[in-house]
Write a structure and sequence with these properties.
With 223 residues, the protein is an all-alpha fold. 73% of the residues lie in helices and 2% in strands.
Length: 223
Amino acid sequence: MNAHRETGHPRDTAAPGARRLRVRYAGIGIFMAFTWVGEGNAPAWEHALRTLAILLILPPVFLRADRHLTHKLYEATRPAPVIAQLITARVVIITAAFGASNLLGHLMDPDTSRSPVMPAAGLLLLLLSIPAQVRRAHRTRARAVHPSARPALSAPRLMLAKLTLVIGALLVQLLLGASMDNATFVAAAAIAVTTALLGPLVHRRLMVARPTGAAREPVRGAA
């Protein structure tokens, strides 16, 4: 009976995990939609190139830094400084990727006036996610298995999946652009919906297994 209280039924743990995965991919879909509409009514190819620039920068750099700092967090005796480093690295890398994308947009079309609303909204969403990132970092630290022993996202597989999504959005906007004025937003909505629906289904295919690592007792009451 006590063991049941400590470990919980497999269904109890699987359901919250599936819900978190759906929420995660819904957030990723919204994030990518914001990326797509960042240039307003720019040509479809410009949206695709800007999104592709983020795609080429973000996954390899972000995943490498995130993995390194997550391992460091798991092994640290004082987690607070490492959590601060982890969240700062995420914010800096994402902001730099979007900055590079916006710079590319200016270089491709320097005469177009751009509203700061969408970049500001994206940055606000990123900052609002910090409390959730802190909670997730503490949950990661409390697990009994070292992060190096858990399956991890593969940057090449993730980039290929997102590239497929970008190509699909580009085709949607090109096909609808001649008949409607808001094809950009339709393509962005298609990105968000497709990511939210298909992301959890293909998630396992985006992961790579790691060698089995040492286990330890979960950290209790870490500051």
